[in-house]
Write a structure and sequence with these properties.
The chain is α/β, with parallel strands linked by helices. It is built from three helices and eight strands, in the order αβαββββαβββ. The N and C termini lie far apart (about 40 Å).
Length: about 180
């Protein structure tokens, strides 16, 4: 099994670099697993096996907002041309989101392009939802669901970031519940 190769001459420099990285990672995973891809039995240190990906028109500002308001930490940030972000990795506990600047992609739309809706949502487990709620309100986040105690346990709220992406934040930890 092999990955398709697109000659770099057909890609812009940022896309060529991303393609080379994607190609190298795909080749690594294809060779590292007897099943032709990564499996849960591979001896690879993984903190989270699901990572959310987002695109932002102003990715540098989004990174600062996500870190200052929701409590993410910068794991890696790779600048692109003209003040864009080619790729960024932000961590929160053992989870991660990856994001970058918006690029032409007919499969991905921003919330304001689809009436403010989202087709997925993210839930952040935090130690103190009230502290994050205060930071979100102070940063003028649109609060979609006020902070409250949940009937299933935990306390949380839901807000929009400055570009309209929806984030639910709470203390409920499904790994600890049951």
């Amino acid at each position: 099994m092999t990955t398709a190769h697109i000659p770099n001459r057909f890609l812009t420099p940022p896309l060529a670099a991303h393609h080379r990285l994607s190609h190298c990672l795909a080749e690594y995973f294809l060779r590292s697993s007897p099943l032709g891809g990564i499996s849960m039995n591979d001896n690879i240190a993984t903190r989270s096996t699901v990572i959310l990906g987002q695109a932002y028109r102003n990715a540098p500002a989004a990174i600062e907002w996500l870190c200052n308001v929701l409590g993410f930490a910068k794991h890696a940030v790779y600048p692109g041309p003209d003040g864009t972000i080619m790729h960024a990795e932000l961590t929160l506990g053992s989870g991660m989101v990856m994001l970058g600047s918006v690029r032409a992609n007919p499969l991905v739309k921003q919330p304001d392009e689809i009436g403010g809706a989202e087709t997925r949502s993210a839930y952040l487990i935090v130690a103190n939802a009230d502290e994050v709620y205060v930071r979100a309100k102070s940063a003028a986040a649109e609060i979609l669901q006020e902070i409250k105690d949940e009937s299933y346990g935990g306390r949380g709220f839901t807000c929009r970031d400055p570009e309209g992406h929806i984030w639910s934040v709470g203390t409920y930890d499904p790994w600890q519940a049951k």
